[in-house]
Design brief:
Layout (H helix, E strand, L loop, with lengths): L1 E5 L4 H13 L2 E4 L17 H27 L12 E6 H12 L3 H7 L9 H5 L19 E7 L4 E3 H5 L3 H5 L12 E6 L15 E2 L14 E2 L11 E2 L13 E3 L2 H10 L4 E6 L22 H21 L1
Parallel strand pairs: 1-2, 1-3, 3-4, 4-6, 6-11
Antiparallel strand pairs: 5-10, 7-10, 8-9
Length: about 325
């Protein structure tokens, strides 16, 4: 059997996605992950949101390693999963987890995607390495060669602002032609009207800023001393060096279109499905062209996405 790994988006949606994959012969694991709740009222990205995204990616990697360990060391195999054929899928903020696992290969890449001010503690020092030893699965378990594909739904990658502003986004994901497991095939689903993960860059639509350090006695959304690793002392900050004196961005929050263009430029197989009237997530009438009116039930669209994703994954599994 093949393994599909789904992160959560909304209960009904992701439950349905996972059931449809399971009906097609995939063994599905749908884990929970850490997430941040403290949002900046100015709509900037708070320290808790950024830290929780990093921690969620630690959780996703830990889940896969744990499955590997339980499957390969338990008598008779615990889950009956073919761990040589693993697929990752997720939506919205949950979709950043499989994107991170599939394409952010090193700690240095994650440090660039979760930047802190020069000379201050890094995200790794405050929250632990991206392949943290918090889980049953040991950190020396290498699952990357067995990831055969990634499915992203209205989500996208974090890309260093300096690369995106110069048109070199693909450089961030390039690691040489001889790296067999450099990047995985990708299938994406996105709405052109998405205002959370904007589909098109346009006039800087994908640029976002971290919360600025406050003035006076205002609450500091840019620093925290909570939920950090044992032994860490002091405060953990986000790097706002670009926007302290100007209005430039700190990171680019990409979309499935970014992944499509990046992977195409790196000669990796990718498919992209776009709905011209869809926002962030699927509503009735959002159908990627499969319906003949504006009333296609969203459940039908969920099924269509799984059908396309399952076909894509099966093709990857036999290659």
């Amino acid at each position: 059997m093949k393994a599909a790994y789904c992160t959560d988006y909304t209960g009904a949606f992701m439950d349905s996605i996972c059931r449809h994959f399971a009906k097609r012969g995939f063994c599905v694991i749908k884990p929970e992950y850490r997430r941040g709740r403290l949002q900046d009222k100015k709509a900037d990205k708070s320290i808790q949101q950024q830290a929780s995204q990093y921690c969620a990616c630690q959780d996703g990697r830990g889940v896969i390693r744990t499955v590997f360990k339980k499957e390969r060391t338990s008598a008779g195999a615990l889950y009956r999963i073919d761990t040589t054929k693993i697929f990752l899928a997720g939506a919205s903020s949950g979709g950043t987890i499989p994107v991170n696992i599939g394409y952010y290969r090193t700690q240095a890449m994650n440090d660039s995607a979760f930047p802190t001010p020069p000379g201050e503690p890094t995200t790794m020092q405050a929250l632990g390495p991206i392949n943290a030893n918090y889980y049953v699965g040991d950190t020396n378990i290498n699952f990357r060669p067995y990831i055969k594909g990634v499915m992203g739904m209205w989500t996208g990658p974090n890309i260093p602002y300096s690369l995106g502003s110069t048109g070199h986004e693909a450089d961030f994901f390039w690691q040489g032609a001889n790296n067999t497991y450099n990047n995985q095939p990708y299938i994406g689903f996105h709405g052109m009207l998405d205002d959370v993960f904007p589909y098109l860059d346009g006039s800087g639509a994908q640029n976002f800023q971290f919360s600025k350090p406050p003035g006076g006695t205002n609450f500091n959304y840019n620093a925290t001393t909570n939920c950090l690793i044992d032994g860490f002392t002091g405060s953990y900050h986000l790097d706002t060096v670009n926007n302290k004196r100007s209005n430039t961005a700190d990171l680019i929050q990409g979309s499935s279109l970014n992944m499509y263009n990046i992977l195409n430029s790196l000669y990796k197989l990718t498919e992209l499905y776009v709905d011209s009237t869809m926002g962030h997530g699927v509503d009735d009438g959002d159908d990627f062209g499969i319906g003949d009116d504006l009333t296609t039930p969203k459940e039908d669209t969920w099924l269509y996405m799984v059908q396309r994703g399952a076909t894509f994954f099966r093709q990857r599994a036999i290659m």
